[in-house]
Amino acid sequence: MSEQRDNQQMSGGEALVKSLEHEGVESIFGYPGGAILPVYDPIIDSSIRHILVRHEQGAGHMAEGYAHATGEPGVAMVTSGPGATNIVTPLADAMLDSVPMVCITGQVPVPAIGTDAFQECDTTGITMAVTKHNFLVTEAQDIPRVIHEAFHIATTGRPGPVLVDIPKDIVDPTNPRSDMNWYAATDADMELPGYSPQMEGDRELIRQAAELIRDAERPVLYVGGGILKARAAEALRELAEMVQIPVVTTLMARGAFPDSHELCLGMPGMHGNYTAVTAMQESDLLISLGARFDDRVTGKLDGFAPTAKIIHVDIDPAELGKVRQFNVGIQGDCRLVIEGINHAMRELGGADAQVDRSAWRSTVSGWQENFPLTYEQSAPGDKLKPQYVIEELRDGNPADTIVASGVGQHQMYASQWWQFDHPYTWINSGGLGTMGFSIPAAIGAKAGRPDSRVWAVDGDGCFQMTAQELVTASVENIPIKVALLNNSYLGMVRQWQEMFYEERYSEVYLQERVPDYVKWAESMGCAAIRVEAPEEVAPAIEKANEINDRPVVVEFVTDAGENVFPMVPAGKSNSDVVVDPTQAHLLEGES
Which of 36, 75, 536, 586 has its CA at a distance of 20 to 30 angstroms from the CA of residue 132? Predict the structure, then answer.
């Protein structure tokens, strides 16, 4: 039996599919083409579900959404040339947001590489800057090892996208170069010299961090997406409750700490709430856990949290000191480091050893009372306020509903007004800010977690970029729900032009009459509803939630003049945060 297994031969294409099965892959999002065709043939006999997208960008974002929702690496597969170039944007998106993803691209046969053959491009060269690592495989016998290495790299250390470029001749069963022994190949050790992520944090540095926390009078826990990648939500909550320190959750960390918790201040940053922004600004200690001091959080860097000492914990050593110099910098897995801090804190006396922070708590409570998120409700006959729509969506759905957002004003409204009490329920494009992200990401999330309710919150600009993937959702029976906030504008750009370009509105109006979103959605196999009045909002959401045999698009016609507040203008300090106009007079008492 052993000898029979050792002698079993198969094509490189069969070996590739078998290797993916061996890694536990359940779903692939992809689009076939000439160079990758030999791999698509054995998929017919595989246990892996292949989801046929309508554009390669959709495949990448679906793989991202799958990874966000499940914690498992998403897998995308496309052909060479334009197939590979079309997936560059999702790779860049996954790279910036540390999303585990494996992308397999077809390539022209090895002898044709470099000859400008049909549908050839330098895929590894093009994607080097937007992947954690990439491979060009030139021998069929290397396929199992490289696939295993790709999944290992994508999911360990700081997660990220890995690309594997596969020439056609090494997977084509009609080509002698494709013949290989899969079982022998799987015995090969990984060849990753120099790649050894450090997981455990330095014990002495952890002790120093615990001492700084214990003695700080105005500390803030600054929580980034690394908490979710490290599965550290429980350890974070234990730390926050032990030391009674307020928590801010960045755009990528929404849900990592419950919004309903008394210690949660919400989201900081350019459109964060006033309390979160100002608490960071006035703190004497920022405990940064899996966050990277992004410019959207810091504002003008030399004016950011000027009196704060910094504890910075990150799995990626390149992030430590990259933007803001630390007092204690700890490389390591967030969960393991936080657990270490919790242990060290208990040794130091736990809750009883903390300095008196009653004045800090009182100050923070005052900000929360004076500067809550707010907006003016629509007057009779006016268009809907987008904030109201998000509130109704939030209240009309279970607390563990997965929300996938596009990019722009609707993204900020969703992050601000939805209450995230569960991790892995907020999926968005943070670092790259990719318009068109939400619909394919929602499809990927629903494919990975079919029993969860999944809503995509989209704007009309984003919708027009990737709406064709609703055909995929219809045909593949992936019944997502889409809340389309249609204000007929590129809303965030219009807001900037209003505030900073003297209301000179250049190329931001998308038209009110075309397209007809209801007809468009119905033509793609979706149920569709148009909502124009406040009293129609809740019934439309309820109706959408009752439809589970196909995707649903609910178009909410919203007020084009509404702006997102608070806002820290680009290039300004967080101390210059602009609040809602109804609260502006209160800032005089703060200054």
Answer: 36
Q: 119, 208, 419, 583: which is the annotated catalytic residue? A: 119
Q: Number of C-alpha atoms within 13 angstroms, CB side, residue 360?
A: 21
Domain ranges for the chain, please list them: 2-186, 203-370, 386-557
pLDDT, residue 3, reads 40
Contact call for residues 462 and 485 (beta carbons, < 8 A): no
Model confidence at 4, pLDDT cuts 50, 70, 90, reads: very low
Strand partners, 10: 180
Q: What is the pLDDT of residues 58-98, one digit of tens each?
A: 999 999 999 999 999 999 999 999 999 999 999 999 999 99
The C-alpha atoms of residue 481 and residue 240 are separated, in whole angstroms, by 35
Given the residues 168, 229, 385, 446, the one annotated as active site: 168
What is the mean pLDDT of the segment spanning 220-236? 97
pLDDT category of residue 591 using cuts at 50, 70 and 90? low
pLDDT digits (tens, 9 = 90+) for 399-451: 999 999 999 999 999 999 999 999 999 999 999 999 999 999 999 999 999 99
The answer to whether residue 217 is catalytic is no
Q: Is 331 a catalytic residue?
A: no
CA separation, residue 261 to residues 14, 241, 244, 266 (Å)? 51, 10, 11, 10
119 assigned to active site: yes
* 386-557 CATH, one of 3.40.50.920, 3.90.1150.10, 3.40.1440.60, 3.40.50.970: 3.40.50.970
Residue 34 reports pLDDT greater than 60: yes
Write the Ramachandran bin of 130: left for phi over 0, alpha for psi from -120 to 50, otherwise beta.
alpha
pLDDT of residue 2: 37
Out of 56, 120, 319, 392, the active site residue is 56
* Gap between the Cα atoms of 389 and 486, Å rounded: 11
Mean pLDDT of 183-209: 90
CATH architecture of 2-186: 3-Layer(aba) Sandwich (3.40)
Mean pLDDT of 365-369: 95
386-557 has the same fold as 203-370:
yes
The three-class DSSP label of residue 436 is coil
Catalytic residue among 8, 9, 118, 376: 118
In the numeric block, the tokens 């032009």 are attached to 497
Packed helices 233-243 and 334-347: angle between N→C axes, nearest 10 degrees: 30
Angle at 454 between CA 452 and CA 459, to 5 degrees: 175
Distances (CA, A) of 215 to 12, 232, 298, 390: 60, 24, 24, 40
Catalytic pick among 252, 270, 492, 524: 492
